[in-house]
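DM from R.C. (forwarded with permission)

"hey, sorry to bug you on a friday — could you get me a structure for this? deadline for the figure draft is monday and I only need the backbone to look sensible"
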Amino acid sequence: MLLRFRGRKSGRWHTTPVGYAREGSLVVVVTMPTYRWWRNVIDRAPVQLRLDSQWFDASARLLRPDDPAYDAAVALQVHKRGPNMLRGIGIPVTDDGRVPATARADAGKQAHIVLIELGSRIARPE
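My reply, with the result:
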């Protein structure tokens, strides 16, 4: 999937390829803190996605471990892509997609979970 977002300081569009898990209109992206694109979606931000050969308007936001949507996003990631991806980057996760309470504080330091809500299909962006 291609994720297109505006730089929070420059206002310019940037595009980056990302792995994802999708169910309906919800898309979950897990990224390492060393990749910096997630800083542009800390608060809800408009983005565009190229998914299944089509572009979509969407809204993205960074989920913190205490966010009510965090558990569902992690579970979706594990259900669609398996637990080993998260385990491989240092997030202990159960086979059914739960992060133990003892690991929650550190989970946000190991990886960032971005929740994207798909909007309408659009023509190819400029």
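R.C.: lifesaver. The chain has one domain: 2-122.
me: no worries. The helical segments are 70-81, 84-88, 104-110.
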